[in-house]
Amino acid sequence: MFPLISSLFNHVFGTDFSWPIPTFGFFVTLSFVLSYWVFHSEFARKEREGLINAFEERVDVGGMRANVFIGLGYGLLGFLIGFKGGGIFLEYDSFRSNPLHWLLSGRGSWVAGLGFRCCWFFSYCLCNGNHSSSPAGKQHVW
Length: 142
Fold this sequence. Notes:
The protein has a two-stranded antiparallel ribbon with strand order 1-2. The N and C termini lie far apart (46 Å). The chain has helices at 5-13, 23-49, 64-90, 92-97, 99-103, 110-127, 129-132, and strands at 57-61, 137-141. The chain is mostly helical. It contains 7 helices and 2 strands.
């Protein structure tokens, strides 16, 4: 009945705007997010009641090499989000005409991509700076 989220929003609230997000994909994503939230809250409740107990496990920590690859992954993800997100902001009419074709093309904003890459990579380095110098070995996790 409503092919786009904006169609549903316009029908419910009486507005008139166009936003090219398909309804089916949006609600599939929403179902995954809500099922995670319910799963997490139920396990927290059962743990508070004492029905489920957390256990301690020792795992190997990769050391500096693993931190470098994780930091590069954060940088790559930040670049992709900035590249496509900035491109959508700058070329919205082209994106709105065919969103899937635009997202899978090579068009985007290099400046926004590099800016997001730097922000995400440096935020990773700032948040995990104290762990990067720790030696590789075993660590307790819950």
